[in-house]
Amino acid sequence: MACMQTIQIHAPMACTVLVVAVQNGETIRAGQVLLVLEAMKMEHEIHAPQDGRITEVLASAGELVQEGDLLLSLAPQTLASAPVASPATVTAATRDDLQALRVRMALTEDASRPQAIAKRHALGLRSARENIADLCDADSFSEYGALAVAAQASRRSADDLQRNTPADGLVCGTAAINGQACAVLAYDATVLAGTQGMRNHQKTDRLLGVALQQRLPLVLFAEGGGGRPGDTDMPIVAGLHVTTFASHARLSGQVPMVGIAAGRCFAGNAALLGCCDVIIATEASNIGMGGPAMVEGGGLGVFAPEQIGPSAVQARNGVIDLLVRDEAQAVAAAKQYLGYFQGSVADWTCNPPELLRQALPDSRTRSYDMRALMQQLADTGALLELRPGFGPAVLTALARIEGRPVGLLASNPAHLGGAIDAAAADKTARFMRLCNTHGLPLVSLIDTPGFMVGPDTEATAQVRHVSRIFVAAAHLRVPLLALIIRKGYGLGAMALAGGGFHAPLATAAWPSAEFGAMGLEGAVRLGYRKELEAQPDGPAREALFQSLLQQQIANGSSLNMATTLEIDAVIDPADSRRWLSQGLAAGKIGPLLPGGLDTW
User: Fold this and answer.
1) From the CB of residue 312, how many other CB atoms can be counted at a distance below 10 Å?
2) How many whole angstroms separate alpha carbon 258 and alpha carbon 260?
3) pLDDT per residue as tens digits for the range 7-30
4) Spatial contact of 217 and 254, defined as CB atoms under 8 Å apart
């Protein structure tokens, strides 16, 4: 019976026997190493298939054997069930190379540099890794290039570089944000002031290539001082051949790109930030194409970092899309922003639709809060306004209506009566392109007397700026729904409706809406000048003016516009969400067109 149970161990290949680890009569455990063989400079362990006793050993150390040669035999036995650590477990606990990896990886963590991190925290700022941990879904961050160090081996020791230049000042990798795959790049301001070294350029290029290939949205923490002159290991003069900026810009128009600035962001870091679709910055941030050293070196004066591109300036001039208190708010805003490009949500709530009937004052000339109206129209808590401090005559926001993400344009009668100036035109055109690029339908809430006019306005190149809206709208691949709230006058109203009132998928108006080729008061004064001048200046002329104006208001009413089919419908304000939802459901999104997204 024993012979029938014998298990024979044969050579799996032509090889040399290096070690015979057992002898005749020895009791062995399943998984125990029996022999070590060598073939093509590689060692192969032969393990016992089960518990047993060695009955015959035919191989000897140093012997050359052929494939299939019998090496040893064993008889199976049932042994006591005392646990025996597997060879893999023993090896993992004692391997020098694994321990070396653990020691080396520890140097990349914040805990290895307590002084640098404490200094960071004292400034009210977080580390790059802390920001990434907050941004990414738990345990989803997969880092690229963690073991890189600054290219300064000719002037610094390996230990110094490992301890003080971890990851070469750039933490990057892939992760899930809101459950969807993204790419993340974070410059580490505690490492060489967040400057761009040669190796972190290489890391950036590597991850940007992955993001482009896999179409991964990108989040960039751009704090830092630009190019680093201290990397001496690379035989270069100026480093102007690096491909990082072109690689980063190539993502534009392909995936959503979010830039976050906290602290100081200058030069090359600012150039990367400026290529992003949206810039989120903290109140204490400074953003500029040149830091103090570059400004002074150019003979332009001596300035503190805080004097160059402060957030108050950059929010007002349109560089910053979202101004937030701190990095925690910046990360929360980035998550919310990306969420609009990650599809619809099933769970949503909204304000009672009937509240929209109370959104306007009774007087047709009384201003009101368009932002409050937008909040009422959107799902609860689903409105994210962009560039609120720039071009305030038009408001731009991302929103959801019955869970569906949209881009929301809205006239702002509280600024210039809603007249569109150059800044508002630039803001509108760029927002249209943003939504068009990433496939978000557009909703336009119109209450405008038209384009701003006058000598001072024309000095701002108004003709060129406002025309950008028409060009952007003419190339929309996403549906546009236009809803005229009150004033729908002239070319400005046409522009906000995508080029004309028949350009949108559907155009509706509230009963409060009024229309004209220009402002009705101006139309009366221009069209009836002779009649007015024929009346003596005073009550008689004013009475005639008011009479003619009322005729224009009645003629330009929303009901008359719908009668002549210049608009598609007049709706109860309380039905606005339902009308928009039905229109959005009917709209189709066309194919993505080539080209990047205009940074401005």
Assistant:
1) 12
2) 7
3) 999 999 999 999 999 999 999 999
4) no
